[in-house]
């Protein structure tokens, strides 16, 4: 077994690829906050949470990526569900779904409102689209599909219709019963503001708020107002994750803060200054696929944090690639073609 000092002397994940990916290496997950690989959280954060290096988290993710084989069956590499898609917002569920496919899952089911379904279907023939979210039997119809879903994204393009929110709670509860890992973003987070008890102590849940969404969550759950014009502090993200019973939070900003209130990682990979819509949706799709792969791997360590770190890192890579070509006019759709290339670069494999 390599010592932690020797392991960290290698440069980058490619140099770590020689390790046996079936071995359990939980002892390698923890590095002292003083190491050069660790991001620099505040002193209070260092005192209360263990910093995990990006190299170790990415290696943990790499170990759980399913090996491509001619013996695989359709669906084995992941069946992802997306709860979202309304008349006004059809792009968000598409971006979440297509990024999940581009990163390597096999099938994506989008559960949307009836009026959104034809539009979402027109974006890609690869998506399985169910116009059920606003149907009279929405809960029953969607619940029948859930046992086939490996990971569920809740929120992209969902909207804030009261009738939809009434269905959302029972869907989340059913997913919990089935132990389906959840990624909650966008209007799914708005629902959590008033219903945070529903994810309390759910350690297979990842919340992905941007700064505004985080300040709303923090106010709703902690009862404290944070200035949204200022950078969110790592200790605040950690405090909220701990309050929720160690739910993992990927707080998206100039530096992405990833923590479950016990361990923390800060993603400082260079992205781009472009802030077009849809980037968070792309991340949520990749994250859901990674989360399933990690959950499905019986030898897996740091399931939610490694999935989140990989999604954050890969999102910044595709953002940067697209920006180098398209500059100020970069769109989320411009980033999609770079997902396979950047995936290969990040993990040194197909």
Keywords:
Ribokinase-like, single chain, globular, lyase, CARKD, ATP-dependent (S)-NAD(P)H-hydrate dehydratase, alpha/beta, UDP-N-acetylmuramoyl-L-alanine:D-glutamate ligase, ATP-dependent NAD(P)H-hydrate dehydratase activity, 14 helices, disordered N terminus
What spatial form do the alpha-carbon principal axes imply?
globular
Task: Determine the CATH superfamily.
Answer: Ribokinase
Question: Uncertain runs with pLDDT below 50, 5 residues or more?
Answer: 1-42
Proportion of beta-strand residues? 5-15%
Backbone CA Rg: 19 Å
Average pLDDT over all residues: 89
Question: What's the structural domain tally?
Answer: 1
The helicity comes to 40-55%
**What is the H/E order?**
HHEHEHEHEHEHEHEHHEEEHHHH
Distance between the termini: 27 Å
For this structure, the CATH topology is UDP-N-acetylmuramoyl-L-alanine:D-glutamate ligase
In DSSP terms (H or I, runs of 4 or more residues), the helix count works out at: 14
Structural class: alpha/beta
User: In order across it, which strands form the biggest sheet?
Assistant: 1-10-9-8-7-6-5-2-3-4
| Highest-level CATH class | Alpha Beta
Biggest beta sheet attributes:
10 strands, mixed
Q: Quick one: how many beta strands?
A: 10
Please name the CATH architecture.
3-Layer(aba) Sandwich
Binding site for (6S)-NADPHX: 157, 210-216, 281
Keywords: ATP-binding, Lyase, NAD, NADP, Nucleotide-binding, Phosphoprotein
InterPro entries: CARKD, Ribokinase-like
Catalytic activity: (6S)-NADHX + ATP = ADP + phosphate + NADH + H(+); (6S)-NADPHX + ATP = ADP + phosphate + NADPH + H(+)
């Amino acid at each position: 077994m390599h010592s932690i000092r020797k392991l960290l002397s290698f440069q980058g994940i490619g140099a770590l690829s020689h390790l046996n990916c079936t071995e359990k290496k939980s002892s390698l997950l923890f590095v002292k906050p003083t190491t050069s690989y660790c991001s620099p959280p505040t002193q209070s954060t260092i005192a209360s949470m263990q910093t995990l290096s990006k190299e170790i988290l990415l290696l943990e993710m790499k170990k759980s990526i399913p090996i491509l084989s001619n013996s695989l069956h359709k669906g084995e590499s992941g069946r992802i569900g997306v709860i979202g898609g309304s008349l006004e917002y059809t792009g968000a569920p598409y971006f979440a779904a297509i990024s999940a496919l581009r990163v390597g899952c096999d099938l994506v089911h989008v559960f949307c409102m009836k009026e959104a379904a034809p539009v979402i279907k027109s974006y890609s023939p690869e998506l399985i689209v169910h116009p059920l979210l606003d149907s009279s039997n929405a809960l029953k119809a969607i619940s029948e599909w859930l046992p086939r879903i490996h990971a569920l994204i809740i929120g992209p393009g969902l909207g804030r219709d009261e009738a939809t929110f009434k269905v959302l709670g029972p869907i989340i509860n059913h997913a919990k019963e089935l132990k389906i890992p959840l990624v909650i973003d966008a209007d799914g987070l708005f629902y959590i503001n008033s219903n945070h008890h529903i994810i309390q102590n759910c350690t297979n849940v990842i919340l992905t708020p941007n700064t505004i969404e985080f300040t709303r969550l923090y106010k709703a759950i902690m009862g404290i107002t944070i200035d949204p014009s200022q950078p969110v502090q790592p200790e605040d993200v950690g405090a909220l994750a701990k309050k929720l019973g160690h739910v993992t939070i990927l707080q998206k900003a100039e530096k992405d803060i990833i923590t479950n209130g016990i361990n923390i990682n800060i993603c400082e990979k260079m992205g781009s200054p472009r802030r077009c819509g849809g980037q968070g949706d792309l991340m949520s799709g990749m994250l859901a696929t990674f989360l399933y792969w990690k959950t499905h791997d019986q030898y897996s360590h740091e399931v939610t944090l490694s999935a989140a770190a990989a999604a954050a890192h890969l999102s910044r890579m595709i953002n940067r690639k697209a920006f180098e070509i398209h500059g100020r006019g970069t769109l989320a759709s411009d980033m999609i073609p770079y997902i396979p290339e950047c995936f290969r670069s990040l993990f040194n494999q197909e």
